[in-house]
Amino acid sequence: MKKYLILVLIVTFLIWLLYHSTNGYLVPGYHTFFYTKSDYKSFLEEINEKKEKYKAEYKEADSKEKKEIIEKVQELFLENTEEIFAYWYGTSYDLNGTSQTPGEGKIACGYFVTTVIRDAGFGIDRVRMAQMASEEAIKKLVDDKKIKRFHKVKNVEFVKAARKEGEGLYVVGLDTHIGFLLIKGKEAFFIHSTSTIPHCVIREEAENSPTLRHSKYKVLGKLSEDESFLIKWLD
Q: Is residue 180 within 8 Å of 172, Cβ to Cβ?
């Protein structure tokens, strides 16, 4: 009875840790009990259903209505990608990793970015784009007007400049790395598949990210406000 009680307490603590810790996805069972492979498949099907709905509406809409639909698509894109991130957190990193299933196998930084974008509903060449230099990949995704470049800028200043661009989702290209920057309210997170500890897909405060801090060159492309990018989602 005592052993059973201890086990229950341990499980309860792990569940509490999972929902209250920034790195809760490192708790054993994250992909077994919470963000599972079957749930991910169902979620992607939901994304596709919503896309088809908006696609049909967009075709029949006038210019004013199309603008309103794009605004809804922008909100949906942010919601979808945040949920997709949650499934991928904790998935192991490897320089040659090409996993397409959260929690299984390993995934490199470029493949993480392109897989998330593909699974969010965009028709891209996941493999080819993952193998590009980070700046070239961003240029394929984002209109040049939505791209900013920083050279030898302190990370705090970089994040400050990104905040001035407003809330939303960005792709960040570094010297030898690529990931996402999510700015939401007062929070700014760098989401990427990291080669450093804990060697997996993580979410960390952008200001304190060693990976961002050590890169001399940074390219910032805003996905969530690029109208041409969002229209492609409907195509």
A: yes
Q: What share of the chain is helix, strand, coil (3-state, %, to 5)?
A: 55, 20, 25
Note whether 4 and 104 are same-domain residues.
Answer: no
Would residue 152 be called left, alpha or beta, if left means φ above 0 and alpha means ψ between -120 and 50 degrees? left
Give the Cα separation of 125 and 20 in Å (integer).
36
User: Is 111 within 8 Å of 96 (Cβ atoms)?
Assistant: no
Q: Higher pLDDT residue, 19 or 104?
A: 104
One domain, residues 65 and 173 = yes
The domain in which residue 13 lies consists of: 1-34
Shared-domain flag, residues 2 and 48: no
Per-residue model confidence (pLDDT) at position 229: 86
Q: Could you tell me the pTM of the whole model?
A: 0.89
Number of domains comprising the chain: 2
Q: What is the DSSP letter of 91?
A: P
How far apart are the C-alpha atoms of 76 and 71, rounded to whole Å? 9
| CB burial of residue 37 (10 Å; 0-12, 13-18, 19+) | middle
Give yes or no for a contact between 59 and 90, defined as CB atoms under 8 angstroms apart.
no
Per residue in 127-139, pLDDT tens? 999 999 999 999 9
Position 20 pLDDT exceeds 50: no
